Amino acid sequence: GLPGAKIPMLAEKLDVFGLPLFVGSKQRFLITVGDRLAEGAATHVVTLNSEMVVNARRDPAFWNALGKAELIVQDGTGVVMAARFLKWKRLYRLPGIELAEGIFKSAERAGRSVYLLGAHENVLEAAKAWLFAKHPKLRVAGSHHGYFQGKEEEVIKDIISSSAEILLVGTGSPGQEYFITRTRHRLPCKLMMGIGGSFDVWAGSRRRASKLVQRMGLEWLHRSLVDFRRWPRLSFIPCFIWMVIAAKMTGRSMIKFVDVALNYSKSAPALRGINLHIQKQEFVFLVGGTGGGKSSLLKCVYREIVPQSGRVFVFRRDVTQMPAREIPFLRRRIGVIFQDFLLLPRKSVYENVAYALEARGAPLKIIRQLVPEVLESVGLSRKMKSLPEELSGGEQQRACIARSLVNKPDILLADEPTGNLDPETSVGIIDILKHVNTRGTTLVVATHDENIVNQFRTRTVRVEHGRLISDKDKGGY
Fold first, then answer.
1. Nearest-CA neighbor of 230 among 362, 357, 51, 104?
2. How far apart are CA 32 and CA 363, in angstroms?
3. What is the layout of strands, in order, in the sheet containing 71-74?
4. Which of 211-220, 443-452, 460-469 shows the lowest mean pLDDT across its residues?
5. What does 319-386 look like in DSSP terms, one character per residue?
6. Mind spelling out the 3-state secondary structure of 199-243?
7. 388, pLDDT greater than 80
8. Fewer Cβ atoms within 10 Å of its own Cβ: the N or the C terminal residue of the chain?
């Protein structure tokens, strides 16, 4: 039956201070970028460390550059340790230099061409000599040193003429990320990655820390001790530690309202003094009369509206103070199901669900795998080619659920999901949502369907005239 159906997963990502980090091993990363290369999907890979996290929070332009990358991996020990300390997830450290070496090996085997950009000219030549010795069949389509200020156009033309499929930029952060972001639309390259000082290591002018120091997570300290010019850069550490402590203080909370007030007009306040705390993997009904404030609460969660006063925390972030550039990252982790379905009328069920993946730049291979799986999970595998007008109301709502699930949201918000359905179909819809909740998704359902609330008996929050009237663990209508 449907509750036992498999719900597919995208390549897993973890939100770390508003940035979606790739979750997986080096091998998983190489498979992922290999699949994207095979499909011709452009991929900018950012190798993130804690210094970059701090700089991105301070500099909107850098944040935007990171936000446009298709893959962000955790190069720095600080990011990995923070995730473990906060008990978010066990992350693998994926040093950019090791990923680049894996890319070289894969490119040599597949016959793909590489362009190298960065370092001093003599360092770059020495790095190329090392590369040719280690990977004699690798096609290096071109190279250029990293000191080209005022001559960027020449470099761009050289990369274009090389027709390289892979571009590795070692000019240091944030310069390498800025370069890729502003030039990628002109370049033939399908895989672009910043690799920092890797050329120096390959050239032999700088040594990596020992394996023991790497395992201890102290490679950053080794680099600072052998290069005193890095010392001023260590000033970011107290700021990053404070960010981690602040995140720890908010605990496992997924959604938290603190004294929230919202007014659409002075005569009719939508929300008044709302205090509400929803934990990870909870299933919560929001009940109350029409116009009582249920939909307004949900809209505050995904930042559709901003209250006049109070604070709304989602994933431990105050979304009332969230810059506009971060809102798309927030919404990638939230699925929303509407009463009126909002399916694209001229697209099939398959195309409606696939559209949610296409908007995130998912490769065609992933789309072809996930869409049929998620449609099967909601009982629509035989309706993939149907248009919305050819579906019943219950089938249209299941298509909406599939569209919301295909991106694997951490929070699923359902606004009157059974409002247009008969009682039997309504129970089936809530059964599907409940199964999603048992797999780890936090679920909030706004409804005035008395029978549904009484039948499922989960935490029930009543909102009337903008005020939170009651909050019961095993409530009923």
1. 51
2. 10
3. 71-74, 43-48, 191-194, 166-170, 113-118, 139-144
4. 211-220
5. GGG--GGGHHHHHHTEEEE-TT----TTS-HHHHHHHHHHTTT--HHHHHHHHHHHHHHTT-GGGTT-
6. HHHHHCCCCCCCHHHHHCCCHHHHHHHHCHHHHHHHHHHHHHHHH
7. yes
8. N
